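[09:14] KT: can someone run the structure on this one? pasting the chain below
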Amino acid sequence: MNVTTAHPPTENLAPAGEPLEADGGPHGRRSAGPTPAHPSGVVATARIRATHNGRTTTVPLLHNDGPFHLRRLRAHGEQARVRVLGAMSAPLGGDRLALDITVETHAGLEVTNAAATIALRGPTTVPATYDVRVRVGDHATLHWLPEPLISTQGSTLHQTFAIDLAPTSHLLMREEQLLGRSGEPPGHLTTRLTVHRGGRPLLEQHTAYGDPAPAWDGPAVLGTHRATGQLLLVDPELVTPREPRVICDDPAQGHAVLTPLAAPRALIATAVAPTPAQLRHLLDIALTYAYETPKSQAEGARSEP
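[09:31] RB: done, structure tokens below
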């Protein structure tokens, strides 16, 4: 295994008014698309496209499919917001799910979901897949802030993120996993995160938890903790520190570190904690530290003789 190391309030849905290119898709257990790996599985791809009309960001494409039901929320300034609602239990064994997100030049988009995503075994032990494919254009912004993914006993889920950023785009990505519900061991969960910026590799990361992954609960990986996650920040105006910064190193509270990537203007925070609430707290602190770093460096430079 290679490891790189307060829920949002319910808000009023935005009133309808923007035209949709597509907004549909069956909500039964079978969905249109290629033949799934298992006959009981769902094959579904939802799509979101955000564009800037010269004044503000609009979302002309919301395409629902399978378990994905997409709803607009009220905007934050010029940033459009979309919430992903679950129309059925998913992902289950044998499902093939995908979410495509495009944020065009100068647009700003935040994507959240209404509740945790729960990976379940379902009627088969065939693995489920969930692929998130993202493209963010020049001077565009994406905030990907979903609730945690819960890996339940007996489930197998392979999740991938493929992110393509323009050189001037901004990304804030939070990823959280809870390994097992209360009193149960987790299923098998793998995630692969691939990020390119300006056509060049920025980050390639793979994690694997739960049997048969080796040593995932050993002291060098999670130990006794069952909540794990990370925060990826790519910002053209960010001043990154030269060295990693330890945020927390307390077995009772968790462990977290904020690390600059090899490419400039990019940071990743990784954390493990006993509970999802403690994990979220550590990632929130990491985000605060990321934007305090330039101020702290400037003050330190002025204090030197």
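[09:33] KT: thanks! The chain has two domains: 43-212, 243-305.
[09:34] RB: yep, looked fine to me
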